[in-house]
Design brief:
This protein is of the alpha+beta class. It has a single domain, classed as Amidase signature (AS) domain (Amidase signature (AS) enzymes). 41% of the residues lie in helices and 14% in strands. It contains 19 helices and 15 strands. It has an eight-stranded mixed sheet, with helices on both faces. A three-stranded mixed sheet has the order 1-3-2. Strand 6 and strand 7 form a beta hairpin. Helix 6 runs antiparallel to helix 7 and helix 9 packs parallel to helix 10. It is globular.
Length: 503
């Protein structure tokens, strides 16, 4: 694992002189906020107190930094600290947005903040300094969020566990021998570990919902085109950006703050007439829910995960909804034959763009062993393969949409197993054991990246061993508001906010 001080040299060298001048005074500022109080607040609750003057953004930030210093050596969830930069922001005039003064972490994958490093979890990108800021990050800042660092992700988000040769392993706050999930595992561990109540996450095959399930959090994957991906990449076929959080309303309010197209964007989710926050505070009407217990892979599902889904179905029935067993109208062989080339094209393009930026070819020593193997296998894929794959995905999207003319929501386990043990999903191992462990990790989640639909993991179950087991609900394309209504209803019926790991 690299020396953290080396990783931050470039970042420190690019900080403004005013930030450096302010840092000593800010670092020594006293705080009147206790961690016990801080842990009881969600992000909107923090912002309300900052706005009223009950606490200051500086005080709140120092509690978050102190908590990070206490637990990050154990969890290994934050891979780049921007504490002095955050202190300067917290001390200055803050936008009067919905998250005024709330500490925040960006995922170290695809999220650009000018003057800071985004490694993509890869040694090949270890000195990748951003010369621009992502549109969604600009919207985070306008909402009043104070960015204090970046969280661990596996290389290119290429597995369901946040483990990398560059930064090591992110550990699950509920059980340190287990993974926090991936690829937004660093974000989920930071939130579950009490560093902050909400953090940025992205999802290209389950990477918001998988770690939300593993860490006992709420994780909403928005519809394709809901949150902008630019300014330099204006659309993404599979991946979307949002967050993991402890409360439903934080997730809803953040989507209000970040949704909407940017100039040049052509894939745009249908606009919602009201606000997602208002939706989260309103109960849905009587829903028809399809219960899916057979994953896309047709592989076995752990009994705890089946119990979680069936218990959620019973809960929904008790809330007045109609639940019926359904089977997904998707051929797994067709799906994975199409999904693979699309994801491969993204990886190959990312590596080749970096080769051009560095003026040299990638080598085996630059990448995780399994990413290197994938790259070599996929780098000569044809345009015909990619086009055929995209057409197949379009046909499967229609099949699922036709199913959802009958069902408002599809309910399933988020994962086929409880959180994996560390090492089982590492990209630094032989292909055969990895594939055996990984084949089911996104068996329920990846379909909705392909179809573009919103889907959420809700923390409604814990295993007999005390590990979180998430339950997933998928809505029709563009209908995040309906999912937030259902999530808010479930949060009231089976509260989870105060259920926290002892770390």
């Amino acid at each position: 694992m690299d020396d953290p001080s080396r990783r931050t040299l470039i970042k420190q060298g690019l900080l403004a002189a005013t930030t450096a001048a302010l840092a000593p005074a800010l670092r020594s500022a006293p705080t009147g906020v206790s961690f016990a109080d801080y842990q009881q607040w969600d992000a909107l609750g923090i912002a309300e107190r900052v706005r009223s003057g009950d606490v200051s953004a500086r005080e709140v930030l120092e509690v978050a930094i102190a908590r990070a210093n206490a637990v990050n050596p154990t969890l290994n969830c934050i891979v780049e600290t921007l504490y002095d930069r955050a202190r300067a922001v917290a001390a200055g005039p803050l936008p009067d947005g919905p998250f005024r003064g709330v500490p925040f972490l960006l995922k170290d994958l695809g999220m650009m903040l000018e003057g800071t490093v985004t490694t993509e979890g890869s040694r090949f990108f270890r000195d990748n300094v951003a010369d621009y800021t992502s549109t969604v990050v600009t919207r985070y800042q306008a909402a009043g969020l104070v960015i204090m660092g970046k969280t661990h992700s596996p290389e290119f988000g290429g597995t369901g566990s946040s483990e990398s040769m560059l930064f090591g392993d992110t550990r699950n706050p509920w059980n340190l021998a287990h993974s926090a999930g991936g690829s937004s595992g660093g974000a989920a561990a930071a939130v579950a570990g009490g560093i902050l109540p909400i953090a940025n996450a992205t999802d290209g095959g389950g990477s918001i919902r998988i770690p939300a399930s593993a860490c006992g959090l709420f994780g909403m994957k928005p519809s394709r085109g809901r949150v902008p991906a630019g300014p330099r990449t204006l659309s993404s076929i599979m991946s979307v950006t949002h967050a993991v959080s402890r409360s439903v309303r934080d997730s809803a309010a953040l989507l209000d703050a970040t949704s909407g197209p940017e100039p040049g964007q052509t894939v745009i989710a249908p606009p919602h007439a009201g606000s997602f926050l208002q939706a989260a505070q309103q109960a849905p009407g009587r829903l028809r829910i399809g219960l899916v217990t057979t994953p896309l892979t047709h592989t076995p599902v752990h009994a705890e995960c089946i119990s979680a889904a069936r218990n959620a179905a019973t809960l929904c029935g008790g809330l007045g909804h109609v639940v019926e067993d359904v089977t997904l109208p998707v051929d797994p062989r067709r799906f994975f034959a199409a999904f693979g080339p699309i994801m491969a094209a993204s990886t190959v393009e990312r590596i080749r763009a970096r080769e051009r930026a560095l003026g040299r070819d990638v080598t085996e020593n630059d990448l995780e062993p399994l990413i290197w193997e994938r790259y070599r296998a996929d780098r000569n894929n044809s345009a015909e393969q990619l086009y055929a794959a995209m057409q197949d995905i379009e046909r499967m999207t229609r099949d699922v949409a036709l199913l959802q003319e009958t069902y408002d929501v599809l309910l399933s386990p988020t994962l086929t197993t409880p959180p994996a043990k560390l090492g089982e999903l590492s990209l630094n191992q032989e292909k055969a054991p990895y594939e055996q462990a990984a084949i089911s990790v996104s068996a329920f989640t990846s379909l909705f990246n392909a179809t573009g639909q919103p889907a959420m993991s809700v923390p409604l179950h814990w295993s007999a061993d005390g590990l979180p087991i998430g339950v997933m609900f998928a809505g029709r394309y563009g209908e995040e508001a309906l999912l937030f209504q259902l999530a808010g209803q479930l949060e009231k019926a089976a509260p989870w906010f105060d259920r926290l790991p002892k770390v």
